[in-house]
Fold:
Amino acid sequence: MNAPSVLNLNKSRSERQNLIHQLSGVEESIQAILLSVIAGCELSETDAVKLFGATGAELDGLIATADYIRKQAVGNQASFVITRNINFTNVCYMGCKFCGFAKRKEDADAELLSLDEIADRAEEAWNRGATEVCIQGGLHPNIPGTHYRDILKAVKARVPGIHIHAFSPFEIWFGAAKSKLSIAEFIQDLMDHGLDSMPGTAAEILDVEIRQQLTRDKLTTEQWIEIITTAHDLGLPTTATIMYGHIDGPEHWAAHINTIRGIQKQTGGFTEFVPLGFVHYESPLYQNTPNVRPGPTVEENIRMHAIARLMLNGWIDNIQASWVKLGPDYAQQMLQSGANDLGGTLMNESISRSSGGKHGQEIVPEDMVRMISAAGREPVRRNTLYRVVEEYEQPVDARIDSVISHSETLIPRSINDAQLIATSGRVAL
Ligand code: SF4
Structure:
């Protein structure tokens, strides 16, 4: 690493002074919390709950502090990855109340992709520039435990170089039980057959009472932590997520992020933290249960990304804004509120769509570049493990209004209508 130049050190000092000056207008107790984070202290769970109530000048101070801490941690680059989601089956009987994705076997739109179809999709993604496939599915009662290994073998046989990011902790629990293997034995077997990393989904809110209300038989908090830490101990990286804005509140959010931070201190295995706002439109939880909120508000989304940046500072560098959940314009706003990544281009995203998500199936890399540039950041394409694989010139039309109107004309866009389009000498998805 190059030593910081005198110019950069002066710039950094002046940014810090400007921030401290801005915070002088913030209510005293919130100001004290933010100043202690700037001074390098760890944000406690109790103080995080207070920050979740920030409004007006206090919210502006929180955003400015998160943006400052983001810059200190990861600089000005903001990233995305070219990936394809392959949801290999939507058949599932677990009955999670928030889920609009699961079908019964006899439903007309029930789906179970063959191994060949999964490999076809992976190969198509690879040929269109993807470095990763993200493979997840429902817990189909008829698939054997070996099916997970067979998926990996089929994909790696066809596309040896692609990174397979696959199988939620719930699927790991299901596959291990079906295989009569311990969690560690099952994960190790998957790693031996090509599993490169795991999504930290199925976390929802890591709180016993909230989880019991979300589903009857959902993986418990303890089981989620056991599976994730076992993966980390075996050398398998995972992401970390939170699904918020339903029957939960600030205390649950702060406790959840604190749990994630505790795991990271122990294992160092998380690559990123991804806040996922609850998508309520087609969700049975919203439709059938009183007092369920219709997802987080815009301000709650901002606070979540900003507070995650502060709480995880020094432990998890990458905070992702999910454009699938937020929409492109709000995702872009999160890049100025602590986030440094926009996630994947996600051909065929179907889980949020099944719950009524309105934000399409795919964003082309050019849109990602424009969105990042319009947020005042340097766009880079990364791989799953956050290594930069491509840097971009800043486009001249990177104004926010041009990005939003451009995105509206391109979304939704599916793999079927986005055949290999050569743009400016580069293949676009
Ligand atoms: S969230 Fe996953 S495990 Fe729960 S019902 Fe939906 S597909 Fe099944």
Observations:
- The chain has two domains: 3-74, 77-424.
- The pocket of iron/sulfur cluster is lined by residues 92, 94-96, 99, 101-102, 138-139, 170 (CB under 6 Å).
- The chain has a mean pLDDT of 87.
